Amino acid sequence: MMGDFLLKGxxxxxxxxxxxxxxxxxxxxxxDRLGMSAPAVSQQLRNLSLALGVDLIDHSxxxxxxxxxxxxxLPRAQAALSALRAGQRGLSMLDLSELSALSLxxxxxxxxxxxxxxxxxxxxxxxxxxxxxxxxxxxALHAQIARRELDIAICxxxxxxxxxxxTHPLIDDPYVLAVPKGTDVSGGLNALGGLTFLRxxxxxxxxxxxxxxxxxxxxxxxxxxxxxxxxxxSALVAGGTGWTITTPLSLIRAxxxxxxxxxxxxxxxxxxxxxVLYATGDWTGPIPDRIAERARELIEDHxxxxxxxxxxWLGDQFRPHPGPSDAQFQAEN
Length: 333
What we know:
Elements: E1 6-7, E2 10-11, H1 12-24, H2 27-34, H3 38-52, E3 57-58, E4 65-66, H4 68-91, E5 101-107, H5 114-125, E6 130-136, H6 138-146, E7 152-156, E8 165-174, E9 176-180, E10 196-200, H7 205-216, E11 225-227, H8 230-238, E12 242-246, H9 248-252, E13 261-265, E14 272-280, H10 286-310, H11 324-332
Parallel strand pairs: 5-6, 5-7, 10-11, 10-12
Antiparallel strand pairs: 1-2, 3-4, 7-14, 8-14, 9-12, 9-13
Helix pairs in contact: 1-2, 1-3, 1-4, 2-3, 5-10
């Protein structure tokens, strides 16, 4: 079992417990998430601290927080876990050498981080396969997979889902309020009248969901700006021109503009777009499952973990969905 893996006195289970507690601040929540008892979690933390010779958790605080040594060790623990999980994944990777063709579509949000890694993994596994990769907006990918021009698509879920597809949830991307840095939002959305609302293209899934939220909230906002470019919207918010409703995934993509943008929970009921993997009915079995599993790992590394570090209030709202292999691992441990 992975939980018994030893590396110079450190157990993988101990590293997993430490990583989870660093996010939750609670032994009980950590135990529930990892399928362990609270005493077992506490014992793993004690063993890890003894192996390292330092205290990693300040138990006197509620919620618990990392000590300076814990903050220093956390990124190293996460890097070690990532490498070990990648190694395990490589050992169990599907043999796709006999696959003759695969057409994959991926939402453009992922084109700089997730898509290159996913394409490289698949290309290495599919030595005899005709591999076609396209990127685009979710509504365009919906249409392509519905017409069977794609076998698999990774995109925002539609309403309804494309006909004849099976859905593998990857992550829920909650909507948040984005304003120029230092903007007072205590008065709610109605108090932002001095700034222009930056709308998204209504053809986009995000644009449609945001417009429904605005309508339900009874807001009447001028149609001055309407754009399909995440970077352009981010630049205008950062420059002080306006405010918008966006998601953590989109904010992480803001790049050099991100430091001039403040993010806050969206007023009112929570709302999220769900990022999923669609597979046509011909693609049942382990291949879509494994591609979804790899996509979840990449989303966590490149988007979810950085977003939670920047916006701790997101908590469990922005974590990948557990896949079949995660459920099996928890059952075995």
